[in-house]
Write the structure tokens for this entry.
Amino acid sequence: MKAAIFSCKGLGDGLISLLLSNNLYLNGYRVDTFHGSLDQMQSFFSHLPIKKYPNEDKIDQILKFYDQIFVSYNESSSFIMKLIKEGKKIFIDKVFVLNPCPSKKIGGQPYHRDALFDPSINMVDNILLFCKKILKLKKTSKKIDLKIDKNLTFKKFEKRVILHPASAKKSKNWPINKYIKLAQVLKLKGYDP
């Protein structure tokens, strides 16, 4: 079976989507993971093809080509929203919308029934439960084998810190002044943000 996973734009979201990709791979699926920038890390995940998002005019081809499509809900992406709309209209049984939006009212998120994510547990565990209970995959794992380049030096830049200021949902973003303040605090502690 051929599967496609369309992740939210965040780096963390992309890495978590690879957990789903890997579990599908362990069960014999051929999986393509789509993300805006994660393809730069392809060498770390040689068994999991990572591709950039295609153009919106390819949505019909995507819906026909893949046997199952997993889409992370992202209301700020016109591509994602169109993929969901078209997919749910034509191929309702093969398009799963993964909406990890935390909500005190379980089921209050759009497409909650596709994955039944529980806001009281972390995203990794939600993905694993989705694989076991909804997809009924026989083999599941939280581990993904990374292929680390032997030329990389562990902690080469020990004090370097990366600040990632954007998320898929605007409500999760800090105001920019908080990031500036965090960078200043890190500099005072000897880090290189």
About this structure: The chain has a mean pLDDT of 89. Strands lie at 2-6, 30-34, 50-51, 68-72, 95-98.
